[in-house]
């Protein structure tokens, strides 16, 4: 597992739960980035709270007794774990969920709706997935396979052109840490600013500037999690912040603590 962006303090987190990832498959590849499965079994009386600043994407999540569609989140989330449990999810590629949903992504920000809003077959999906027997890694794979089958039945055969553009632009932001301004994105994609803003409102949920800032902050948090001394002024400059104070303000607003405090655990 190489990409832990969004999972705060990943080394500590993986002491409390297991995370497995599985590919989207050919049918869903244009739309879904990955399937992920998380499971935990904590001792009686022990609990753990995992903060997450998610990628700006939609997740379809199934856990015991329920399934739901989670729109892109605008703020830090916290998952409380106790006892034993599991969840399996399809994580969409940024910009790719629009054909599966009933409204523009700007209307899905911070929304959670039952999974059967995607299709009638979703009504019993949580029960079917919950009935997968066993507790090994293969169980996670089987759970992901059932969710993949459901999602594949919803996927359009042809990817809409606006979705292709939104995915390409969003994944360029996600993969290139030197891309720090909307002007840079306009130059790289060839899409003029107003069209880019409309595209992101429709297919991503957030404006391009906010998506850029989210990924750069995730990278700053990842740098802080590596356990080595961090030259924050250099990190700020490399990620497009005007100075260290600018990075500190935005980081603290997103994560609730300063970069230095986060790095200290």
UniProtKB/TrEMBL annotation:
Keywords: DNA-binding, Transcription, Transcription regulation
GO MF term (any one): DNA-binding transcription factor activity
SUPFAM superfamilies reported for this sequence: Homeodomain-like
Domain named HTH araC/xylS-type: residues: 181-265
Residues annotated as transmembrane: none
Pfam families from the UniProt entry: DUF6597, HTH_18
Protein's UniProt name: Helix-turn-helix domain-containing protein
């Amino acid at each position: 597992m190489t990409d832990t962006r969004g999972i705060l303090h990943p080394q500590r987190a993986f002491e409390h739960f297991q995370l497995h990832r599985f590919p989207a498959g050919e049918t869903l590849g244009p739309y879904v980035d990955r399937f992920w499965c998380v499971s935990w079994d904590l001792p009686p009386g022990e609990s753990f709270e995992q903060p997450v600043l998610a990628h700006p994407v939609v997740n379809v999540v199934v856990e015991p007794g329920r399934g739901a569609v989670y729109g892109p989140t605008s703020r830090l989330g916290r998952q409380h774990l106790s006892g034993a449990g599991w969840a399996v999810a399809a994580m969409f590629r940024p910009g790719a969920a629009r054909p599966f949903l009933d409204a523009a992504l700007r209307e899905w920000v911070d929304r959670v709706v039952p999974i059967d809003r995607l299709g009638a077959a979703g009504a019993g999906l949580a029960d079917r997935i919950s009935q997968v027997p066993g507790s090994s890694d293969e169980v996670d794979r089987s759970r992901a396979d059932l969710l993949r089958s459901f999602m594949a039945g919803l996927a359009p055969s042809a990817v809409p052109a606006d979705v292709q553009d939104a995915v390409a632009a969003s994944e360029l932001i996600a993969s290139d840490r030197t891309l720090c301004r909307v002007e840079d994105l306009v130059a790289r994609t060839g899409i003029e600013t107003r069209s880019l803003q409309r595209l992101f409102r429709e297919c991503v949920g957030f404006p391009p500037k906010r998506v850029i800032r989210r990924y750069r902050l995730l990278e700053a948090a990842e740098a802080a999690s590596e356990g080595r001394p961090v030259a924050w002024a250099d990190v700020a400059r490399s990620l497009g912040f005007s100075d260290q104070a600018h990075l500190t303000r935005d980081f603290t607003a997103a994560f609730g603590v300063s970069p230095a405090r986060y790095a200290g655990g």
